[in-house]
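Annotated sample (chain length 399).
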Amino acid sequence: MKNQIEKLYEKSIKKEKLIIGLMSGTSMDGLDIALSSFSGSGADTQIKLLKFKTADYTDIFRQQVKAIFSKREVDLEMVCLMNEQVALTHAKLINEAIVEWGYRNEDIDFIASHGQTIYHAPKSLHQRDELPNGTLQIGDGDHIAVNTGIITLSDFRQKHIAAGGEGAPLAVYGDYLIFSKQGEDRIMLNIGGIANYTYLPGNLDAAKVFSTDVGPGNTLMDQYVQKHFEGLYYDKDAAISQSGNVNEKLLQQLLTNDFFAADFPKTTGPELFSIDYLVNAQKISGTDGLSKEDVMATLCHFSAKGIVAAIERALGQLNKPVLYLSGGGMHNPLLFSLLKAALPQVSFKTTADLEINPDAKEAVLFALLANETICGSQIYFGGREGVPSVSMGKVSLPH
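Output written by the structure step:
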């Protein structure tokens, strides 16, 4: 153990570190693997994205994860087994990517693994005053470290909760360090399963930075496609949504949840915005007989409405804001067109304009969290509730 700790220290003081960041989201289409070089820490952090790929999951693996994903009652034995299986699968995909990119495992200093969220339970969801916020990501860091031979940081969200947060979103920490710019108010909008954004003031005041979930991004659309369109996992190019018509009765019912009126920052997940949520909304609004295409069109408008409403709440304090998109939802042409039409005062760009591949952004952000934990220090965000000033990630040694 002493030798491993010494090795950890030696890597922490290297001028340049190579870190692989991992992200596996709620769509479960594959594992995002981003290799970046890091120098410095905190406001002096310099990052260069070197390699990126999304490694596909097998259908069997995807179905195994889905069997225990976002359900209040699951097979506990499968949760136990999949904690290891997710890690072993991720380790295999990492090893393959390293070879494909022409590196050796010993070239990589650290792995930053988000894991696979299977349940997210802030108090706003579980409504039990006597119990804390909770979240669970599987994919054990020890298994990744042992099977790659690389020091691994994982389980980032637990420290956030321990320090008073809700475990999400964590983008505020990386967005502030990577993307803040003097003189430009920025909104970093990531549309994954859940949409979230970080507000970055142009005066670089960390105490005014915040990040919040805003509602569904892709999650309800993905869930509906997977349930009703055999062999499909998402609505590619919005082909289904654009062939339907929005139903205003259903749309308005979908928007009635108290989550949308709650103060920032806040967090949510597919545990709330599920197929059951949709079925209940259809029942109340009397829209059970809608065509599948009309439901999909309405769900896309639902995602857009939630995002727009949340951004408009921040616009009063922004001066000619620039919105930078990332995440899978940015590739949905209908969703993108709805956002642009509703926010004419906002300039739309993507993180590619800031030299970070939009699809790689979340994986890169977790690599940055690992870099801060290993060689940085806490960033003070004004001592506000929900934005604790902490370093995150548990360290797993390979030997």
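Annotation: The radius of gyration is 20 Å.
Annotation: Residues 181-354 form a domain with the Nucleotidyltransferase; domain 5 fold (CATH 3.30.420.40).
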